Amino acid sequence: MDIAPKYIIAGSFNEYRSFIRDKQLDGIQYKWVSNVDSIRGLNDISGVFIGTWADRDDIVKIIQQIHIIKTKNSFWLIPEEIAKVYSKKFIGVNTTINPQPANHITVKTSSSPWS
Fold first, then answer.
1. CB under 8 Å to 108, separation ≥6 — which residues?
2. Number of compact structural domains in the chain
3. pTM score
């Protein structure tokens, strides 16, 4: 049985390398999410956010893609810390994200143009 790889969302490749350096003997394959295309098309995803991940220019697209992947066959609640970064970078302050199946993603803000 193959062990599913763990995807690492890090602020830089050096952060990724530092993270996996200590984990080389645990038998898990780690993959760096260098951009949103590196996770596009996956049916499931598991991994961690490390280091300065929130400072990435493409973090909103990566979070959106993870949400799509995780909601294909199930309901995924966005962890609070990730939701805060997503809200701050994509939407603005005072945001509530209501996770729903991928074809019904709803975002509400106090100043949303979609209200």
1. 95, 96, 97, 98, 115
2. 1
3. 0.64
